[in-house]
Amino acid sequence: MIDREQIGIRIATLRKKAGLSQQALADKLGVSAQAVSKWEGGKNLPDIDMFCELAWLFHMTIDSIVEGDLLFAQKSIQKELPAGVEALFPDAERRRLLHSLATYCTDTELGNIARDLSRGNLELSVQAGVVRTEEGTFRDEKKVSIPISIVGENTLRETTPYFAKALGEMMGNTEPGLRRVAELICCPECGEKLVIENGNGTVISFSCKNGHHYHVTDGVVYFGSHEIPGELWSLYMKNYQDYLKEQRHPGNPRYQMGTVPCSEVRWQAVKKFRPRVILDIACGTCNGLKYDLQRINWPCLVIMTDVSHRILKYNRRYFTEEMLNPYVDIACLACDCAHLPIRDGCIDMVVSNAGFESMQSKMMEGFHEAYRVLKQGGHAVYNISIVGNHNSENTKKWEHLYYSLNESYSLHEKLFDIKEWEAVCRETGYSSTETKEIYGELPAPKTDTFPFENEILQWMGEYLCISEK
Hints:
The structure is a single chain. 39% of the residues lie in helices and 20% in strands. It has 19 helices and 13 strands. The protein has helices spanning 4-17, 22-29, 33-40, 48-57, 62-67, 83-88, 92-102, 107-118, 153-172, 176-181, 233-236, 240-248, 262-273, 287-293, 309-321, 355-358, 363-373, 393-403, 418-428; strands at residues 125-134, 137-147, 195-199, 202-207, 213-217, 220-222, 277-280, 300-306, 328-334, 347-353, 374-386, 432-439, 461-468. The longest helix has 20 residues, at 153-172.
């Protein structure tokens, strides 16, 4: 039976730990302070959507809030310890620690951590500080180091993602995202496996056995791709400040239409499948996945791909400095998204926020690449611009205006209605495609002048598609 009073106590405790007043928490959730007060007093319960928001905000699972102190690892896809690691540790405490790390580490990483622990070369602890003041004046400070092996389950669950990141960086001398993507990428020239080459403790390149090298510059693996007409980020964003202005811009209201915004529909799909590896194809400024990256609360590798090294460099900085999520590792690949340097069948989910369309003449090649790299049973979650009906007067007028534009607009060769697009998905090999209309086609103008100079597909309707391989 659900204990409302205990749930209220847990919400109040989490709020206070986060340094929030009831009003501040209410503002973050879009509810009244009175609603928060009733939750904490055990008079009312949040609805299920609000429990999801609370879990994301406080980096908890819903079960942890509803049922109490449960291990996150028990609610995740838990890995068994490799046999070599099991053999090193007969004691339960260190095995408990390694089990919690197993959710976030590869077997190789876990083996390295276990060996260093068994040799006494590694110590994990949580630091606590005690400061004494007298009449507001500092007098003394003491720090206490608490061995991680003796901390409670709740503390272990909350701190493990941070320990995993720090251990990976300390022991591997490379970013976790680069180490993990190394298991998935291949040489675009010969198809052979790529391995990391280190120089002076810093990753300098990936190389294959045939001698092909790809340098890591500003944290981005560069495969020699170049920007294309209509997507010249180096001219549009000349520095990181320009990039930040774009990230903080509210965006075109047209793309935020719909009873339920596309970003929310997409997030529900991501959350449902809980993918461990997400590939954002032709990601641009990653405005689509940005909404999801803030909410992921399970171990996940996100691979951002785009032709522009510049935009990926800025993405990496932004998502590791201003939107850091301890559950998410990020890898950036500057490459031709129509010929991805990624092995067949190794990605759990491909996402695209207008990414396929931004590839222009290579749109269908990019769509087929997404299918190739997906695992069997994996999903492509993407939005697509769709016309209403080729036979309607409204669509005919729009198509006439659209195709009268000159080549500088980088036009698409074909405009699809939803039935035509579903047929494309079947022909590509997807076993099923779920489609949801976000908003419809705009009324055509009465004049014979195309009304948009930028974002020229905004007259079309938008669908969110979930295609299963």
